[in-house]
Amino acid sequence: MSSKDVILGRVRAALRDAPAPGPVPRDYRREFPAADLDVLVDRLVDYKASVRRIGSEQVAAVAREIAGGTVVVPEGLPVAWRPEGVLVDDGLTPDRIAAADAVLTAAAVAVAETGTIVLDASPDQGRRIITLLPDVHIVVLRPGQVVASVPEAVARLDPSRPLTWISGPSATSDIELNRVEGVHGPRHLHVLLLDS
Amino acid sequence: MSTFLGMPATAPRGVGHLRGDEPFPAAAHTALANDQLRRNLRHATTTIRGKSGRVIAELPDWQELRSAGSAIKADVMSRLPELLEELEARVTERGGVVHWAADANQANAIVTELVRRTGSERVIKVKSMATQEIALNEALEAAGIQPVETDLAELIVQLGNDQPSHILVPAIHRNRSEIREIFLTAMPGVDPGLTDDPPVLAAAARKYLRETFLSTKVAISGANFGIAETGTLAVVESEGNGRMCLTLPDTLITVMGIEKVVPAWRDLEVFLQLLPRASTGERMNPYTTMWTGVTPGDGPQDFHLVLLDNGRSAVLADPAGRSALHCIRCSACLNVCPVYERTGGHAYGSVYPGPIGAVLSPQLTGIEDNASLPFASSLCGACFDACPVRIDIPSILVHLRNRAPHPKSERAAMRAAAYTMDRPKLYARAQRAAKLARIAGRRGRGLPLGWNRARDLPEIPAQTFRDWWASR
Description:
Chain A is α/β, with parallel strands linked by helices. Chain A contains five helices and twelve strands. Chain A has a six-stranded parallel β-sheet with strand order 1-12-7-4-2-3. In chain A, strands 8-5-6-9 form a four-stranded mixed β-sheet. In chain A, strands 10-11 form a two-stranded antiparallel ribbon.
């Protein structure tokens, strides 16, 4: 007999007399006003991310200035956003990605209420590895990608894609609960919020 | 005892970290004598309570979210077999391989064999309660495979040859100078000029682990949620070590308790609001990774999901106790518990400490093996208020106290007390005798139960109510 049969048999036996549960109440907030970009900025800054509100034509220059060195970008990043001399990820080795100074990507969704940016590995965001190894992550965010709440973000996302939810740079509170930014992930998160 | 299909079985003895070496009162006694530990704990729990309270207050619908979370979990338990099969089907469709482990021994054997097949002699690990529960690290080491904990706190615990003492912040019982000592003693290649400044300590861990992340081909994780509808798994973390383990290696092995399945993608909208605020007191934890099977060209191309029972079906068999399985491991109940705050996690003897551990561990192992844990509580109810999925821990504690085996002498004394209280004349005589005892000597002297080692006996009044009534 397989372990699967054993486990499912045990679970069915355990539930033999269990009453059917009632319906799940969904009376928490599910309707939200338009996302407040100021709230998003406030939450991002609270998590030690830095935020700049700029025009789309400034992305390349600002990214160059923040990175100060080599910038990795995914293959699908708009060409107009790319600083000169970027390293396009066409299957770069982990060592080359780790040696870059920064990575520049787009995003899928952002949540104002929690200061969260979600990447879904679309062509303008790339493989998960490129946003993981460089010390600086620069994210370009379009206002239309910002929602107010977690339920709206969940509704917009496609679970079949690999998803990375980012709320501020890497942080730990393991030593006497002192928040220390940057243990393993990027130590610096820069958000470039585009004008509409 | 022979087992047969359909008989819920508790977690086996001799493997895993669900049973302590000594009962709670004895272990707590040692912990209470440690001033440093109590200072560390009080600072930590007070800080998290404050942060958590502030961010929870920002949500006007916190109670509605709690009710939804509780109802979703109740629904999960009632449909567990179909949801697990749905999860298996979706994960398999997406190129993952699902394994079923009836207990800790089986899970350890499955994981060890999977690692062996890769030829790797080292694995990197994401912090995971399930793998702590089954003592996977010990099993891997016995098989000649080196498990490297990559969460900073778990690393501190591992390098210090220690046990975790909190679900969320396993090294909460250590302060910065202790951590510095551990690093200096046990971290290969550490800078001898290391200070005890937390950013310096964190940077030392970053440096030490970077090379390991990039050169290890197999990772092992737990899962916070497994979504039946889509086959998606989610790991919630802070440091990015989770992202490293879940993204860089060729092979990923995830060990998930069967109770972690949730029905639908949409259900994450509830739990992703509840978990971070209740747990770390943040609006959202820094990183969450979600993956569905294998994605060509991105992340591990070989994915295995191990579904673990190890006593969970036995918990499910008790209608009064099964809601302990609703736990999402946020640790809010630890941080509000006056008992935990004073004893710390080690006293509970299980990887699940605090109030939730006091109800979960005895049910997973069978009450005989953790008989003292349901009594490790003041029943103040703070844990119920704090629980983001509304587990009524105090009621389960009381229920388990009734099921716990009581010492012979205690049962005899209680029977005698019941007999006496049923007979008014006898009761009056007993009260007079108690008065004499008060005159005769110290409180509680001669009680054979050991009760008075942990409890204060009430002062026996100079005049009983009956005497007062009669003399009125």
